[in-house]
Amino acid sequence: MMRLNSASTEVVPNAPTAQGPSRPASSAVTMSMVSDSVPGTARGTVMQLDDPLNAERNLSSSNGDRADAPSGQQPAPPAALGPIHQAITQAPTHQQAKDRQTPTHQATTHQATTHQAMDHVVDSGSIRSCVLPWLARVLYPLARRVVLPTYFGSVTIEGLENLPQNARSLLFAPTHRSRWDALVVPCAIGRPICPADLHFMVSANEASRGLQGWFIQRMGGFPVDTTNPSIASVRHGIKVLETGKALVIFPEGDIFRDGHLHPLKPGLARMAIQAERSHSGVHIVPIHVEYGSPEVGWRCGVRVMIGRSLPLAQYLDRPAKVAAPTLTQDLADALNQLAQSPTEPLTGSDLPR
Fold first, then answer.
1. Mean pLDDT, residues 90-102 taken together
2. Is residue 146 in a domain?
């Protein structure tokens, strides 16, 4: 789903008498220099004392007291300048003022907030994908409670018990039968079912379309050329798995409405094996999506079937040229098995609340 009040010192002068001695120029200059250093005093203001001549004698006397004071002992300031000296010595330093304005707990809170925000971002250098927590907290309940139940006559989810509990990161591989898959699949496996953020490999043209693209980019989607995936897209997918996030890839690469499984793209297996070699604990989860009608019309039913995961550690003892095709074939077999398994009629709704 982050003042210091400068004390001013003012000395009110007595009105000079006509017979009084004239003011020495040096006394006025000395007081002007002192007033510049006192907080809360206007710069250049001359601070006058009761008797300039007495002030000069006091200053001379204080110089003599310094000479007679024992070594290591700070002499007392002149009586006339006592308030001024106190204001200067008690004024907080710049660092103390900064510390008061920025308490330690505020800095700690800011660091924790920044770290928490970065937990929802994956940056591989050339590509960046993120999940806005506040947007996810709004969209998931809205889709589960309003959008899907309103459009579909029934929503069925099977096989949630097949989600591995000890996996470091999950790569979900669903079949692709409709544009509704982009909403149905996240509602079936997203938070709180899957504890990690879902990031999606999305075709480049879908990720750049107006309002739809805005939501995709802020709900974990990042673009990929489905006909010729770039190295940057593959590297970012590996980065998502390495950081412990969940990745969703439609392995067929396109939408097929005939109900049959089409050849899987080999890039998914290569990416998953590379992520497993660098950070072990990656599992591929096959998902079969089935609609009541190929056109996915109003009030038709939808079923999401989750199969047993394929741990990738078992493929690391083979050469890469052999491991990737073997994994691709095993994933295709798992998806075909889900499609052929006996199912109940599409009725009711099993969406998590």
1. 53
2. yes
